[in-house]
Specification:
Layout (H helix, E strand, L loop, with lengths): L14 H12 L4 H15 L3 H13 L3 H18 L6 H10 L4 H19 L3 H14 L8 H9 L7
Helix pairs in contact: 1-2, 2-3, 3-4, 4-6, 6-7, 6-8, 7-8
Length: about 160
């Protein structure tokens, strides 16, 4: 077994993109610098799903929900186009429910659930309820980004005053 120094070998992206992602992590404490590298990685990698997912997580944990939402929505749109998914929820719902084990659909649902969570974080509670409620409709096993849990929190506020 050969040991490699490339910690990000699972990313099927060019080495320059991997280097930019690594620089973003190395500069984590300096948000401005780290964001510069992440944005460069996004610019170079374009629509690559691994980089988009890394960027979503990066912006989420760097407390930049607007950028996290923008990236999650890009993932959603990319999968929608690639899989030729309808825009209308009533048409889309049975397709998603039938294909829950399909990796592209799982990516879509995780990104969609993430967008609901970020919408809630941004104070867009009605939109967040709509998104997470849709996830709950088809996510009986609660496997997609906590969408069902976020919906429950948004629709069943704690009775205790805090």
């Amino acid at each position: 077994m050969q040991i490699t120094e490339n910690k990000y070998s699972w990313y099927d992206v060019p080495e320059d993109v991997k280097s930019l992602l690594e620089l973003a992590t190395q500069h984590w404490e300096n948000t401005t610098e780290a964001e510069k590298y992440m944005n460069e990685a996004l610019a170079v990698a374009g629509e690559h799903p691994d980089v988009l997912i890394a960027a979503y997580r990066f912006f989420f944990y760097k407390n930049n929900p607007a950028m996290a939402l923008q990236v999650a929505e890009k993932v959603i749109e990319n999968v929608r186009k690639a899989e030729n998914l309808p825009d209308d929820w009533e048409e889309l719902k049975p397709i998603l429910a039938e294909r829950l084990d399909d990796p592209e659909i799982r990516l879509y649902l995780n990104a969609y659930a993430a967008s609901g969570f970020v919408l809630a974080k941004l104070g867009e509670f009605e939109k967040a309820k709509e998104v997470t409620g849709r996830i709950k409709e088809i996510d009986e096993k609660k496997q997609f980004g906590g969408g069902s849990t976020v919906f429950d929190v948004l629709t069943n506020p704690d009775d205790e005053d805090e």
